[in-house]
Amino acid sequence: MKQYYVYILECSDQLLYTGITNDINRRIVEHNSGLNKGCFTYKRRPVTFKFYQNFNDVNQAIYFEKKIKKWSAQKKRSLIHGNFDLLKFLSQCRNATHYTYRPGKGDY
Q: Cα separation of 57 and 41, whole Å?
């Protein structure tokens, strides 16, 4: 059964890059080799490996990659460090129009 990996790399400028592959080792070598001048990581090398999640289904991997690409760096770093309490807190909607928003209550 083929495995797919969603991964997060940290670039030399501390920006995070999220990608998907079926071979993590090869992909990290490719990022650090600078094979593609148009790649986000090309001018931010070297990159360091920070996180991966494996999937048996490519569609699930693609869904997860698209989801976390939209996350803030703080949410991604919480995932990297396994800080799931902070990740849950950062995932909560705190907009003034959200039904759980209660100014002054400190529980939103």
A: 26
